Amino acid sequence: MKPAARYYYTLKDAIGCGKRRYTAVKVAEDMETGVYDKPLPCFGCGIGWFSFLLGFVFPPLWYYATFLYFGNYYRRDPRERAGLAASAITAMGFSFVLLVVFAFRWFYYL
């Protein structure tokens, strides 16, 4: 919820007096935190970007993030979508490089 909406006041008619007075709809202290106010897991950067960065050291993490991406994990928190997509693209590129290296070795040593 936007910060300006926390202090939203509305005009309400008093039935018996005929006067108008302001009444608070909600008090700012009673507002619960929103879904996206919580920090992302993995040190605040999200599972996707965490897998993307650590994938350069341990490439199977890219495939794990790709599995999460195609499993629609980002529907729980849309902030995860960019990192999971980046990991999926990197996993595809890494797979292509591995395929070229193995094909080159196969045909070179035959």
TrEMBL record:
<feature type="transmembrane region" description="Helical">
    <location>
        <begin position="47"/>
        <end position="70"/>
    </location>
</feature>
<protein>
    <submittedName>
        <fullName>(rape) hypothetical protein</fullName>
    </submittedName>
</protein>
<keyword id="KW-0812">Transmembrane</keyword>
<keyword id="KW-1133">Transmembrane helix</keyword>
<keyword id="KW-0472">Membrane</keyword>
<feature type="transmembrane region" description="Helical">
    <location>
        <begin position="82"/>
        <end position="108"/>
    </location>
</feature>
